[in-house]
Write a structure and sequence with these properties.
about 80 residues, 3 helices, mainly alpha, about 0% strand, about 70% helix, membrane
Length: about 80
């Protein structure tokens, strides 16, 4: 890259995996900031949010299932 070429702007970069994970987690709890929501809509890809959301939902359901199994086992059922 020559000095006359503009450097790539970091603002135009797509969301990282960590940013996508934290955005989906914040959406799960309903505490997403307006600034992050705007960033997600302008730079995020819907498929990434769908995949991460499905994975987190599956993890939550499995965690509840395991907790119920452990509670029933400790109750002697």
């Amino acid at each position: 890259m020559s000095p006359s070429e503009p450097s790539p702007r970091r603002d135009d970069a797509p969301l990282t995996l960590w940013q996508t994970l934290t955005s989906v987690a914040a959406a799960f709890f309903g505490v997403q900031s307006a600034r992050n929501r705007e960033r997600d809509f302008s730079k995020g890809r819907p498929l990434h949010f769908i995949v991460v959301g499905l994975a987190m939902t599956l993890a939550f359901v499995l965690a509840v299932w395991v907790a119920v199994k452990l509670a029933l086992r400790s109750a002697g059922m």
